[in-house]
Structures are given as C-alpha cells and as structure tokens.
Design goal:
single chain; alpha/beta; Aspartate Aminotransferase, domain 2; Aspartate Aminotransferase, domain 1; 2 domains; seven-stranded mixed β-sheet; four-stranded antiparallel β-sheet; 40% helix
Length: 341
C-alpha cells in the first residue's frame, strides 16, 4: 500500500526532529521540565509570542485542549464551538469529562463559526439554572481545511471579551495556517485577541508533544496542578522540548508546512481536471475535501488509504503531509482517472 492521504498524523518524524531527540539523549538532566532544553524551548515561544507568555508542554492535542480549557473554566461553564470542532467530534468527550463543561456546537458548512452563529448561545449569564457561557473555541486550521482570517478572529475575540468570555484556539495545524496567511504566529493569535492557544507540532513533523500558551499569566495559577492531574506532565520533558528546538531552528516548521500546503494545492489542481469529482471546500492549507463517485471509493482506499468524511454525501478527505511527494499526487490522480473512465 502507498502512504496514502488519510492524515498528517500518519507521516513519520522529520529527520531533523529525530536527530534532536537523539542529541538530547545524553547524560542526566532534571525531569518534569526543569532542564536546559525546556528552558530554551520556552524562550523560543516567548520570542515568538511575547515575553509574558506562559508555556506548558503536553503529550498530545487532546491534552493541550483539555489543559487550556480546564484552566479557564469551571464545571458550571459552557464552551461554544463548531459542530465539526475536534473537541466536539474527535476527543471522545475528554473536554467535557475533564472540564465538566457543556459543549455548545454551532452549525457551519466550512468549519468556521461566526458571531451570528454564536449569539444564540450567549444567554443565561448570572442565572444559576443555566450553564455559564465562558469560552469560544475555534480551530486554526479548521477541521474542514479552511483558515480563519485575522479580522474574523478579532471579531470573535471582541464578542467573547464583551461578554467576559475567553477565546481559545485549537492550533493543531497552526503552522499550515501561518503559511496560508503568510503571517507570523503572533499576528493572528495573540494580536487578534486569542487568550489561550493549543500549539501543535505532531501534524507537522514532530513525534509527539504540543504546547499550551496563555497570553495572560494571571490565568495560570492552577495550570501546573491541572497538567499533573490530567496526566500530561512528562517526566522526561526534554524529549518534547528538544523537538521544538528543531521545529523552530531555521524555520523547519515553515518548510514543512509550505510543502504540505503546496502538495494539497497540487492535488486540488489535478482533481479539478476530473469532472466526476467535486471539491467541496476552499483548499486553504493541507486538506482537500471532495465528493467522489461512491463506486470507486473502496478500490481507491485499497491502494491509497484515506478517510470517508461523509458517507451519505460520498465526501472524502485527503490530507497532504510534510513528506508527501509530487509523484504520489500524480500517481494518485492518474489512478482516479483510470477508475472513473
């Protein structure tokens, strides 16, 4: 079977990241983040986002979202998100279990929530019989492969802050968003009013590890306890931190994301030459969503594995990764043409 287009999670570790892990595997250092690799990685995040940014490393994206949301909520609160959000559809109820909050999904066709969709949930403030709206959570890149523009994020932040709420961003694919927007990370996160950011690396060449960033230090008095209690405090933290050192060195994150996004655009270009297939979403980053004739899906998946996104609509999702090659894209589209002919 070929590598396929199921997920950027399925890709391996970038060689530079793997070398960084190996290079860190020397001697003894203090555990739980009290090591030179972690201190250096935290400084890199502070350089990127601001000196007062608080940084907490965790194992994975679900852990990052849970830690970020747990810090800024109480069990009587609620979290407004897209119906397609990862916290709503793909985290097995972890945000609800660990925060105790209700998730309030907003219907959207492209993964991006708008103030108009959110306002219906903004009621019951200071009424003890109603869960208290506390967080608006967005994904950047969204689960539909689309990207929020700075003005859209700023508008959501203003809405949240006007109601004494927080704006959380699930940045599992934040590098792909930065490349798509051609902007520094800070300019479409902190500078647009984001309060808490789950910063992802696993989908862009790292082995494991994400970072939770808080842009108001006053929020984080209890975060270290919540991280420990939620089993996200890694004893050998240097092996997460060392990956981020490689990730930021010489803009490896950007190189990887540029390539993944470019491969998705190439796939889009080639797919648009096949009239039997309809692309359903803007290809803003490294995902292509398309409606495919149902009779070819099984044969196509057998050779190039990918996920069927919406069985009823015969809609599929194809993901490009940092190691996807042009040859793979062209072979894939040639095979599709053969199947539909």
């Amino acid at each position: 079977m070929n590598k396929g287009f199921a997920s950027d999670n399925n890709a391996g570790i970038h060689p530079a990241v793997l070398k960084a892990i190996s290079d860190a595997n020397t001697g003894h250092v203090h555990g739980y983040g009290d090591d030179p690799y972690s201190r250096e990685a935290i400084l890199l995040f502070k350089d990127e986002f601001g000196a007062d940014t608080e940084v907490f490393f965790v194992f994975n994206g679900t852990g990052a979202n849970v830690l970020g949301l747990s810090t800024i909520t109480r069990s009587y609160d609620s979290i407004v998100c897209s119906e397609k959000a990862h916290i709503q559809t793909d985290e097995c109820g972890a945000p609800e279990k660990f925060t105790g909050c209700k998730l309030l999904p907003v219907a959207t066709g492209n993964g991006k929530i708008t103030p108009e969709g959110i306002i219906a949930h903004l009621h019951g403030f200071d009424f003890e019989h109603h869960s208290q709206p506390k967080v608006i959570s967005i994904s950047q890149v969204t689960e539909m492969g689309t990207v929020y523009y700075p003005e859209e994020i700023r508008e959501l932040a203003e809405l949240a802050h006007r109601h004494h709420m927080f704006l959380h961003m699930d940045g599992a694919r934040i590098s792909n968003a930065a490349v798509s927007l051609d902007m520094p990370f800070r300019s479409f996160t902190r500078d647009c009013g984001v309060d808490v950011l789950s910063f992802g690396g696993t989908k862009n060449g790292m082995m494991l590890g994400e970072a939770v960033l808080f842009f108001n230090p006053a929020l984080t008095h209890e975060t270290k306890y919540l991280r420990k209690q939620s089993m996200q405090l890694f004893s050998k933290m240097r092996f997460v931190s060392a990956q981020f050192l490689a990730f930021f060195k010489d803009d490896l994150w950007k190189e990887n994301a540029i390539h993944a996004n470019r491969m998705a655009k190439l796939l889009e270009k080639e797919i648009r030459k096949i009239p039997q297939i309809i692309i359903t979403q803007n290809v803003d980053a490294n995902a292509v969503f398309a409606i495919v004739p149902g009779n070819i899906i099984a044969a196509l998946q057998e050779k190039y594995f990918f996920y069927l996104w919406d069985e009823k609509a015969s809609e599929v999702r194809w993901m490009a990764s940092f190691d996807t090659s042009e040859e793979e894209i062209l072979d894939f589209t040639r095979f599709i043409k053969k199947l539909v002919s």
